[in-house]
Specification:
Number of helices of chain A: 0
Shape of chain A: globular
Radius of gyration of chain A: 13 Å
Number of strands of chain A: 11
Distance between the termini of chain A: 41 Å
Oligomer: heterodimer
Strand content of chain A: 35-45%
Largest sheet of chain A: 6 strands, mixed
Structural class of chain B: mainly beta
Strand content of chain B: over 45%
Structural class of chain A: mainly beta
Order of helices and strands of chain A: EEEEEEEEEEE
Shape of chain B: globular
Order of helices and strands of chain B: EEEEEEEEEEE
Chain lengths: 108, 114
């Protein structure tokens, strides 16, 4: 069985402060991990995936297989980062299992 | 491409009525997914199709829910009879194995059952 846990439902940070969204997973094989983001009044969209190892909008996420984690980080949060963030896992069958989501609010 | 299209965007119905949600995936995508989003349970996968064939419907909550994909450009999710606990946002998403599995989501249908 595959499972994704996002322990924080809400996260509030000040503009310019670092932000970290936690994600832990359980999966018996080699998963693909993703972060999806939903901005206000916009569609859910892919933010980044572990396999590409790139930084998107200043966000990075490292897959730690030992800790089964895929935390999302940004050193300096911006107001436009306020959104709902979902961590997701894909096994061999192409379907995604999502975490419960974390709502991030960046205050000025 | 307009992306994944869903209709209606909002649906308000009374308990016991039949509800049909519609989805048009991105042209050329061979996977289609139906999700339900609620505050309590987040995003749950209900069912997904590959090349119009249902592959996994283990997330469908009960027999009141059914989904079809009669062709590559159209899918429906039906709830009959509807109940207040079905109130949620229902998302459709599509993907192609040739695009590294990224799922493209529709705008969602907000369903309210009174």
């Amino acid at each position: 069985a595959q499972r994704v846990t996002q322990p924080e439902k809400l996260l509030s940070v000040f503009k310019g402060a670092p932000v970290e969204l936690k994600c832990n997973y359980s999966y018996s094989g080699s998963p693909e991990l993703f972060w999806y983001v939903q901005y206000s009044r916009q569609r859910l969209q892919l933010l980044l995936r572990h396999i590409s190892r790139e930084s998107i909008k200043g966000f990075t996420a490292d897959l730690n297989k030992g800790e089964t984690s895929f935390h999302l980080k940004k050193p300096f949060a911006q107001e436009e980062d306020s959104a709902m963030y979902y961590c997701a896992l894909s096994g061999r069958d192409y379907k995604l299992s999502f975490g419960a989501g974390t709502t991030v609010t960046v205050r000025a | 491409d307009a992306g994944v299209i869903q209709s209606p965007r909002h649906e308000v119905t009374e308990m016991g009525q039949e509800v049909t949600l519609r989805c048009k995936p991105i042209s050329g995508h061979d996977y289609l997914f139906w999700y339900r989003q609620t505050m309590m349970r987040g995003l749950e996968l209900l069912i997904y199709f590959n090349n119009n064939v249902p592959i996994d419907d283990s997330g469908m909550p009960e027999d009141r829910f059914s989904a079809k994909m009669p062709n590559a450009s159209f899918s429906t999710l039906k709830i009959q009879p509807s109940e207040p606990r079905d109130s949620a946002v229902y998302f459709c998403a599509s993907s192609s194995i040739f695009r590294n599995d990224e799922q493209y989501f529709g705008p969602g249908t907000r369903l309210t059952v009174t």
